[in-house]
Amino acid sequence: MLLPLFLLAAVPAAAPSPVERMLTLYDEVCLKAFPDDKAIDALMAAEGAVPLTPEQVRVTFNDDPGRGWLLDDGDRKIQIMLELPPYHACSVRGTTPNGFGDLTAYRDLTAAFKQTRPGFEPAGPYDMDRPELQIHIHAIGEARKLQDGMSETLLLFDQRVTDPQRRANGETGVDIRFVHQIIDKGAR
Questions:
Q1: Is 91 exposed, middle or buried (0-12, 13-18, 19+ CB in 10 A)?
Q2: Which of 29, 109, 131, 181 is the most buried (most CB within 10 A)?
Q3: What pLDDT score does 14 carry?
Q4: What is the pTM of this model?
């Protein structure tokens, strides 16, 4: 049965999934605006993102320099972090119920980015348990060497609570982050 067009227009579009919204922000902020810190500041202001306090930034960066914002995106919060050189990085972070799911949208987005930036090679997967925090961290990425001795990476992380009791108490969400990083040659 065909529905009249006016009925189809009245059907609201589905809200983007947490990962879709994070990927949109990653594209706008970390792939297009980064490494221009002033452009990121302007985007965050336009989005109505709330700047994080130095103490909140320290939770993520410890003593490394940087700043961040929290974006209220309906029923979820998305964190945008800007680490300052020598590890200049832009990341979009959030919690999802099940992690990434299908990575096609991420791969399509980064493929378009890499079309004008040749030389990216896969970096081996990274897995690390942090028993003191009761979490497991998994990452995949790609890197390329830049002509000036610096390097550029695209990274994708997921982080899960591993403690069975905490999981039984409901800590089953998956923290994910998309990162675009440029590493100064002197930082290694």
A1: buried
A2: 29
A3: 60
A4: 0.86
